[in-house]
Design a protein that fits this description.
With 363 residues, the protein is of the alpha/beta class. The longest helix has 32 residues. The radius of gyration is 26 Å and the shape is elongated. It folds into two domains: 235 residues, no CATH class; 119 residues, CBS-domain, CATH 3.10.580. Helix content is 57%, strand content 15%.
Length: 363
């Protein structure tokens, strides 16, 4: 199931909306429309259509500012040579999908600060516009100027919240960058992630006891994010310098295009592998996996050939590629194995299991 929709590109970066964002947008619009005016809401605005239109405008502008926050990170990252795969807007904000987090503490510090700096700039400008109009008695008590104040205030809060030193938020990355200048990168990550997880636990407990469910949900996402990034960083550091040729399997069991699916199932039982390169002589024609087999009903397996169900567009690697690069390819494309080729000739295969076994041994 496709969970994100691409709506365009900015600076060459695909911008996506996650399904959770599409679900929460009308909820935010309703909340803003029902919030009392002293808190920046539009409960007193008439007619009702204008009230809910202002609520929707506030929701769209809020997430636009979240997108600009993420673009701040992405701009600095691209400026320092990092590739950004996409920016996705989720239920609780935006996430930049980055090829690599720079290991240079100074670069990571600049990237981490860029997002909150954008939020602070937007918030300061909007609040300044609101104050000037109020002093000049322009648009007095106008719902439009209330919208300006609301979005400005939220951006200031967004800036402050993101600077809390709890990994993986921006403040946590600032903390890691500062620590990385004084100890190993992996140790700095572990400390920053540990603080982030403790912060998430306290936030979650507070959210439960105060019956603020959304606070507990944010705490959950912070805890998961800190744990995943900690493990991801550990794996990246452990696999530094490890090449594909050191961990790939050179003895590869293959099948021919004429092999039936029924015969393939027998081969899978015999060799205990879940995927096989499809070879026509010395040429690789594709790869067939257990997932492909599952698409064929049992009664048809003796009549359907591997050539009919195999994946023909292959993702391949070279023996001198870095193991961490291959792991990212496996993860990004949700596949279990990659064929290793040298001058169009298959010389091996590397699976997710091969990479994770190498991580376990090197740990």
């Amino acid at each position: 199931m496709k969970t994100s929709i691409q709506i365009g590109k900015i600076m060459g970066i695909p911008i996506k909306l996650h399904i959770t964002f599409l679900l929460i947008l009308p909820v935010f619009a309703w909340m803003f429309a029902r919030t009392e005016p002293q808190f920046g809401g539009f409960q007193d605005v008439e007619p009702e259509l204008l009230r809910y239109s202002m609520g929707m405008a506030a929701s769209v502008l809020l997430f636009t500012c979240v997108l600009l926050h993420e673009l701040g990170h992405s701009y600095v990252a691209k400026k320092h040579g990092s590739d950004i795969n996409s920016i996705t807007l989720f239920l609780f904000g935006g996430v930049s999908s980055m090829e690599d987090i720079p290991r240079d503490p100074k670069t990571e510090l600049k990237m981490a600060v860029a997002g909150p700096a954008v939020s602070l700039l937007i918030g300061s400008i909007l609040i300044m516009i609101h104050e000037i109009s109020r002093q000049e008695l322009l648009f007095q008590d106008s719902p439009y100027m209330r919208l300006v104040w609301l979005i400005g205030y939220i951006n200031i809060v967004l800036c402050i919240f993101n600077l809390i030193p709890a990994f993986p938020m921006d403040g946590g990355r600032v903390l890691r960058a500062w620590l990385a200048g004084r100890m190993s990168y992996i140790k700095a990550t572990q400390i920053a992630a540990g603080i982030g997880k403790m912060f998430a636990i306290f936030m979650g407990i507070f959210g439960l006891f105060s019956s603020i469910i959304w606070l507990t949900l944010i705490a959950f996402f912070i805890y998961i994010g800190a744990s995943e990034e900690e493990k991801s960083t550990e794996v990246s550091v452990i696999l530094e310098g490890v090449k594909v040729k050191a961990i790939m399997s050179k003895e590869v069991q293959t099948v021919s295009p004429e092999t039936t699916v029924e015969e393939l199932v027998d081969i899978m039982f015999k060799y205990k592998h879940m995927g096989y390169p499809v070879m026509d002589g010395s040429k690789v024609k594709g790869i067939v996996t257990f997932t492909d087999v599952q698409k064929v009903i049992k009664e048809d397996r003796k009549n359907v050939k591997v050539s009919q169900i195999m994946t023909k567009e292959l993702i391949t690697a070279r023996e001198d590629d870095d193991a961490i690069t291959v792991l990212k390819l496996l993860t990004r494309n949700s596949i279990g194995r990659i064929i290793v080729k040298n001058d169009e000739k298959m010389i091996g295969i590397i699976s997710r299991t091969d990479v994770l076994r190498a991580v376990q041994l090197l740990e």
